Structure of NADP-dependent oxidoreductase domain-containing protein:
Amino acid sequence: MPIMGLGTFLQPPSKIRDYVQMALEIGYRHIDTSFVYMNEEAIGKALERAIECRIVSREQLFISSKLPPVGNRAIDVKDYVEASLERLKLDYLDLYLIHIPFGFEPNRSGFGRIATDERGNHVLDMDTDIVAIWQALEEQVERGCIRSIGVSNFNERQVQCLLDVSEIPISTNQIELHAYLQQKKLVDFCFKKCVPITAYASLGSPLSKTYFENCFGYSHKSFPEVLCDPVIRRIAKRHRKCQAQILLRFWSQQCVPVIPGAVSCAQLIENFNHVDFNLSTKEMRMISKLDIGEGARIFNGLYYTGAECHPEYPFPVSWDDLNKPDLQKKSVGSPNKCEQNKKSLQKKICGDRE
């Protein structure tokens, strides 16, 4: 996997063709997308055109996509892999990830749609089996549809669960990593287990704040704005670089691939050229000290009502989350099962406090 990739989250299909075309001409070779981004078809057209124009060959590309949470069932894996291949106009994917470890019930009225309850909330599938999903992905590797497989947003327990049964190595755990959320324990765990890490949202995903508000009616309590951090500004000034290049170099210098997005050709170039300098040991330490922890997590899944009650919800749960009235909504499954999960989480937190 290249150390530098192109993120396509929140890139509209109307602009994605030119976006990908520019990136390939600049030198990008890793294009990261997902079924849920709803832009695979447009990316496929861009890739097809780039190959036809001999800007790049298929062998030079590294294309990754992801299994949507509504497809988190072993029986559905094949259909979603084939759907992504068709949309991307590819014979194989270089990397395919389980996007998140918890799943949703499908809406039978349309492929890829999530079922909703009478309140309009997404309906969680409380029986998500990550081992069965992984084994179904291994079958797709054997079929030649996928070259490598991995996960995204998985915690230590979930990674270990797959390591215990996997016949094919976990190629990466793609997780949210930026200066304010460094997830050092998880990163160290994965490195010790020989599971490579890929960083997403390394620039703080500034566009996602509006996205959550408009699409989910969800407002993050304290949205982290790492690009504006004074420490990052000072380091950038010292190196005569932009803040984004400093934030990306912090991870790539630790051998963690990054997949930032961009909103202009200038930003695409800046991001791509972030590896022509090194941060000093002191500067790396200064950025390391900016870590806030869970309070800075952007993609916490809480924009899905009741997600924290799912047995495979991967992130730490706070007392505030447990006491939300949303926990008893039908979207999380039966009230009894939800209550059991809630008590289990409370016990875990109590144990941690003790």
Summary: Residues 5-301 form a domain with the TIM Barrel fold (CATH 3.20.20.100).
